[in-house]
# Entry
Amino acid sequence: MSDRKYLVHPDRPEKIEYCKNCVAPSSSAIPLAFDEEGVCSGCRVSGQRDKVDWEDRKNRLARLLNRYRSKDGANYDCIIPVSGGKDSYFQTHVIKNIMGMNPLLVTYHGNNYTPTGLKNLRNMKEVFGVDHMFFTPSIHVLQTLNRMGMLMMGDMNWHAHCGIFTLPIRVALQFNVPLIIWGEHGFMDIGGMHSYNDFVEFTYRYRHEHLCRGYEWYDFLEAAPSYGESLEKKDLITWMYPSDEEIDRVGVRGIFISNYVPWEANVHGEMVKKEYGFLESEEPFERTYRRMSNLDDMHENGIHDYMKYIKFGYGRATDHTCKDIRAGKMTREEAIEIVRQRDHIKSKDLWRWLDYVGWTEEKFDQVADTFRDPRVWWKGQNGEWVKDNLWDE
Amino acid sequence: MQLRRLIPALFIQNGLIVRSEDFSIHQIIGNVVNEAARYNQWNVDELIYVDISRHQKYDARRDDHRISSFSSIEEIIQGISKVCFMPLTFGGGIRKIEDVDVRIRNGADKVILNTGAYETPELVEAIASKYGNQCCVISADYRMVDGSPMLFTNMGTRNTGVNVLDWIRRCETMGAGEIFLHAIDRDGKANGYDFETINRACEATRLPVIACGGAATIEDFIDVFLDTPASAIAAGNMFHFTEHSYPRAKRELKREKINVR
# Structure
């Protein structure tokens, strides 16, 4: 339990445990468990991939897709939510070019696209020859939700998590297209939340509890006055999840194709660069070494991720090295060095965000500090923040 | 004729819902209270929660979540009771009547026990006399050993050497109200229910039998209700993964003319 009280030197919280195979910490923001050998569920589930009969899975996918294919060509066969990232390219490649479906691409645009991310997104429509719906909520509302998200849960990007996982469902209802194709199940991929035998699908509870952290649009509406913000119900339509009755009416269902097609981001990344002209970030990121992940939102690899470090003591360099260790592309020692160099960096995109929402750096730091998890951080001899480190194991 | 029930069974480890496989692999699924709230929206017949924590340590792990952390099983039951308005059975770590009192006082309607009942049979009698037979559900966890279903205790780790069918008969005489027949070998394997043992258990007792272990699809529920006289079916993992899994299952069961609510 955490009563949000910080321990001070010489006391300290219970030691953080790290996976013996990768570098995932027990303070993981996503559900992650360690087995008796000290190996995390992310590594264990990733190891299952080699035992899956992928030919059988592909046949299952083909059968499933055929059930949803428009009989007379008068409607889309499915919806693919896309950010324009390498995974979006891979999803569309599989569904349109391999399986022969006619998808409608749907994008939630949270007004923070990187120039390269935007180029990649625009390129999709042309290289795949598909229809694409591109949606941006009001900038004023997005700025408000950025500030409130940061104050309410230490995450300016709540609007994006919620928007990405709400807008496509609303479009599915509006267009009467029941099948939504998601890429990988993020929490299964990093944390090993489910087994490959589960054929896990998209659910409201996963979205509400894990992706939106238990907050909905009405929590923002209710809280706005206490933060000095002004929001009306009509401002928040984008984030309103449809009722069970509406979902049932159309029979909306979201599958993750990582259950049907082997998912290896590094391989996909190279393929989509070569085949479809996908571009890596021209500029390196400060908090991760990968140049082809999370290109859409300029703060996703930056200050949004820095908040994960502030809260839980680790960041995207840890996540990315975990994936690359499991894929056999990196040793644990190499990963530790990368984590040591990057996880703590306060990235320079902060200045853009501060300008965007009208905050000072002092205010940002002050708010950020209130979200430090006492399971991870304690106060050192001189009142400074201290935490366990991977390299001190 | 009595309505047959479909019951989500949820396993709690250190304060979080886990996906269980073979009683030994546990992956974290999420928050106990959120899960109960969703099942309440789905209007489920009843819920069974079993706390399989090895240590008395409860933590929801994140403070930036709308549902804040909790530190005891009492807080967890209270949290569930606030959002869930169906019969609630709570189990795990029940060794004495005071453990039962805590669970009932905080909102549980029934308790479910395995090791406690085996090691202290008089506890079953005590629960029955204090709260009524219907309050006491016995979790008869078994593995197939040399072709016989044997009762296991201590979270599936200890073979008692007792045939589970004999144990069920004894539980009935001790005053239990219901049998939760749990096939450990099938836990989380999605390989279908153990029809033979379910049928034999139903023959061995007049108590309602809840069959658990092996569910993969809604067809598995239909088969159990068509091919065995089980009063209820419980399933864990599969309810977590697909949207509207419970209402869809109910609809399919009704379509097969199975007498469910």
Q: What stands out?
A: The longest strand of chain B covers residues 136-145.
